[in-house]
Amino acid sequence: MNTKTKIAGIGLFLGLAALLLVAVSPLHLQALNPGPMTPGHEALSCTSCHTEAPGTARQQIQANLAYLTGFRKAPVAFGYETPDSNDCSACHARPDDAHPLHRFAEPRFVEAVRVVRATTCLGCHREHQGTRVSSNTEFCAACHDDLVVKNDPVDIPHRILVAEERWSTCLGCHDYHGNHAREAQKRLADAFDVQTIRSYLSDGSDPYGKARRHPAKGERP
Ligand code: HEC
Ligand code: HEC
Ligand code: HEC
Ligand code: HEC
Ligand code: HEC
Q1: What is the whole-number distance in angstroms between the Cα of residue 126 and the centre of ligand 1?
Q2: 171 Cα–ligand 4 center, Å
Q3: What is the pTM of this model?
């Protein structure tokens, strides 16, 4: 390497380092927002979900430069970690969740979890996509295809709904977490239609109503 190349190399390194330093400063976090928030999250600060990543800024810059220049296989979390289920549960703790994450670590759910990532909040709730739920309306099938409801109170019994694979009706009567303070309808004609449910899973209004058994932290009960 001649001196000119060396100087150019050092210049490039310092330039990149400065750029990355600017990128991690909290003042610039807002500009890094990759997309619209989940409805209800608009007012949260970035750091209520993204905690600072381990390692000093210099270590992170070195590791990421190594990645950019091909000496490292993967980039390291830059400045802030990608949130996980624990970050969500800090504000959304529900001791009586109808579908708690930990249940689905059991071996009998191995197949189902391949289809529906029920062991992590992010399996169904991507962030920065402007939607409440990123999964489809029919994922109940992965676990309830052998469903039998004793003394079934529904006019079209579950046995028939399941046999006819009418999976898009389930969310019309049941919410997933059981956190809405309500009872499931008993007549199929009263179920919310699939358009209404799709709209809620996206960013539309909530057909199940406002009352919650466990309000999110930061929200008035
Ligand atoms: C409610 C929690 C939450 C808040 C608040 C939040 N984020 Fe995120 N962010 C996430 C999650 C979860 C992901 C991972 C995306 C995915 O896989 O669904 C993510 C991903 C990202 C990424 C992609 C890199 C990575 O770490 O995966 C960036 C950049 C980012 N967020 C920046 C921001 C900024 C800037 C703000 C504030 C304006 C912010 N986020 C607020 C939850 C949040
Ligand atoms: C700092 C507290 C906080 C954190 C952390 C947080 N949330 Fe929220 N979340 C809220 C609040 C407050 C609302 C608004 C509740 C409302 O309007 O009913 C909300 C709303 C939501 C909604 C929409 C609910 C609705 O009724 O419209 C979903 C889905 C959600 N959060 C999932 C998540 C997931 C997944 C994570 C982790 C990536 C997460 N939240 C992290 C506080 C938080
Ligand atoms: C297998 C998919 C799935 C997983 C995993 C999942 N959710 Fe949900 N979640 C849904 C669906 C579907 C809805 C919409 C129906 C409803 O309101 O319950 C929902 C609704 C919500 C809501 C709004 C209604 C309410 O309960 O207050 C919040 C908040 C929420 N989820 C948070 C979480 C958090 C936090 C986790 C992880 C601990 C999580 N979810 C894991 C599918 C999932
Ligand atoms: C990953 C597996 C899995 C998925 C996906 C799943 N469930 Fe469940 N569900 C369960 C298990 C396990 C139970 C507990 C049954 C038991 O205790 O015998 C349960 C219980 C329930 C209950 C009874 C709740 C209570 O508190 O008594 C309802 C209602 C329900 N599920 C509806 C749904 C609906 C609607 C969907 C789709 C939106 C769905 N489930 C998706 C595994 C799943
Ligand atoms: C017309 C409304 C309606 C529809 C549609 C519906 N359910 Fe139900 N479901 C009920 C009612 C009412 C009960 C009994 C009360 C309760 O557990 O909430 C019930 C009970 C359940 C239970 C609890 C069973 C037990 O033994 O405790 C599960 C699990 C369940 N439903 C899953 C589903 C699935 C999966 C679908 C989609 C195929 C579905 N339901 C469709 C209204 C409905």
Answers
A1: 9
A2: 11
A3: 0.90
Out of 49, 66, 82, a domain closes at: 82
Quick one: residue 218, left, alpha or beta (phi over 0 = left, psi -120 to 50 = alpha)?
Answer: left
Residue 170, ligand 3, Cβ within 6 A: no
Give the domain extent around 11.
Answer: 3-82
CB 140 within 8 A of CB 170: yes
CA–CA separation, 152 vs 121, rounded Å? 31
Atom of ligand 2 at shortest range from CA of 49: 5
Q: Return the residue whose CA atom lies nearest to atom 16 of ligand 2.
A: 40
Q: Which of 101, 143, 148 to mutate to test the pocket of ligand 4 (most atoms within 8 A of CB)?
A: 143
Residue 196 and residue 103 share a domain: yes
Q: Is the per-residue pLDDT at 187 higher than 60? A: yes
At 78-87, the pLDDT tens digits run: 578 899 999 9
**From the CB of 29, is ligand 1 less than 6 Å away?**
yes
| Any domain includes 220 | no
Are 95 and 189 within one domain?
A: yes
Q: Is residue 221 part of a domain?
A: no
**pLDDT, tens only, 22-63:** 555 554 567 778 899 999 999 999 999 998 877 766 776 777
Contact 53, 81 (CB under 8 A): yes
For the CA of 96, the nearest atom of ligand 4: 26
Q: Are residues 90 and 195 in the same domain?
A: yes
List helix spans (H) across 25-137: 26-29, 57-68, 85-89, 110-115
**Using CA positions, which residue lies closest to atom 37 of ligand 5?**
170
Same domain for 117 and 154, yes or no, is: yes
209 found inside a domain: no
Q: How many domains does the chain have?
A: 2
